[in-house]
Amino acid sequence: MKLSVVIPVYNEAATIAELISRVHAVDIPKQIIVVDDGSTDGTRDVLEGLKGRYENMRVILQPRNRGKGAALRLGFQHATGDYVLVQDADLEYDPAEYPVLLRPLIEGKADVVYGSRFLTTKQHRVLFFWHSVGNRLLTLISNMFTNLNLTDMETGFKVFRREVIQSIKLEQNRFGFEPEVTVKIARMKLRIYEVGISYYGRTYEEGKKINWKDGVKALWCILKYSIKTPRSTYQPAPQTSPEDATGDLLDSV
Predict the structure, then answer these.
(1) E strands of 79-197, at which residues?
(2) What is the pTM assigned to this prediction?
(3) DSSP state of 15
(4) What pLDDT, in 10s, does the model give residues 15-28?
């Protein structure tokens, strides 16, 4: 079993080295794909400094900032593992919990697993009340349109069978990735599981980027993709060659 960890990065110079160290330390065979989305704060210098330290890591440099969704699309194209996991670069989600996320997949029960910040008794940093309300409201509306019973649609900790995520045509460039992919996997009649995770949220002073405008866009994405996405039974799509992907690839970083 091999895991591909896709890490979208934008201006995370303070956390990216520690995050990659934690990901590498997880005792699972893995491929680490870092997609730098046009960072301007020295993140690329940090990644350059890690050259040669991690043989299983590849870095893709986007020529300009396009957003988390765009970075993930590019990273997914380069994934070769049995499972593909989305890992934010800001240390809010703990790589040590990969085995918890992977268990339903390895046991053959699931095609997709969401790590829920609300379906858990694990430790959480206490932060923004209205963010919590917004997340739960968006999850509720998403569930109404998808007929799922998720507790945390907006979680940044998701893992997919590789052939599943590579078969989905994704469009959203920013944080609309979360509602878009949720609607589309619901329409594919996949086996979706949730597991409880810990969460170490950060403040805007510490670098948090999502805001209320992204919440409005998420609502729009739920409505848009619920209307335009047909129901289907999952069928693997032809694989895209990594050489066809955009961005500059540093093989040894």
Answers:
(1) 83-86, 112-116, 158-161, 192-196
(2) 0.86
(3) T
(4) 999 999 999 999 99
